[in-house]
Amino acid sequence: MDLFSSSVMKNLEMALDGSALKQKTISNNLANVDTPGYKAKETVFNQELKKSLQAHRTDQRHFSFGTESSSSFHVKEKTNTVMNHNGNNVDVDKEMAELAKNQLYYQTLVQRINGKFNSIKMVVKGGR
User: Which of 8, 45, 66, 78 could covalently link to 40 via disulfide, CB atoms 3.0 to 4.6 Å apart?
Assistant: First the structure.
């Protein structure tokens, strides 16, 4: 029996990996806020995560999910931002907002994984 390789656990693990990469990307942007010519980066993984979610639609009124699984995330330069006088396009306020949003997302994922482990723990202990 494979307790930790369910599709839910794999998706949660992939989401945690993506969130950790996003944290690194935001931290790198904030560290280079005064670097002339630095171009802000962003991590793209939510679209990949949505693609990897698999569900069986039993009714046309249900939301559709993608059926392809992909664990790749990538970092790309932000192109829709305003350049500063030194060629840098890091917006500290936006980066701090993204950082807070990512931290909440990460904490939510950790709580979901803890819930899964607590369910397994309860079953192992016989429901006590």
Answer: 78
Region of residue 127 (left: phi > 0; alpha: psi -120 to 50; beta: else): left
Q: Contact at 8 Å (CB) between 80 and 89?
A: no
14/24: higher pLDDT: 24
Residue among 70, 75, 3 nearest 39 (CA): 75
CA 91 – CA 30 distance, rounded (Å): 9
Which DSSP category does 62 fall into? Answer: S
With a threshold of 0.90, does the pTM exceed it? Answer: no
Q: Looking at residues 17-45, what average pLDDT do you find?
A: 92
Sequence letter at residue 19: S
Q: Name the token pair of 54.
A: 């698999």
DSSP state of 35: S
Strand stretches in 8-79, DSSP E: 41-44, 74-77
Longest alpha-carbon distance in the chain: 65
User: Would you give the end-to-end CA distance of the chain in angstroms?
Assistant: 22
**88 with 32: CB under 8 angstroms?**
yes
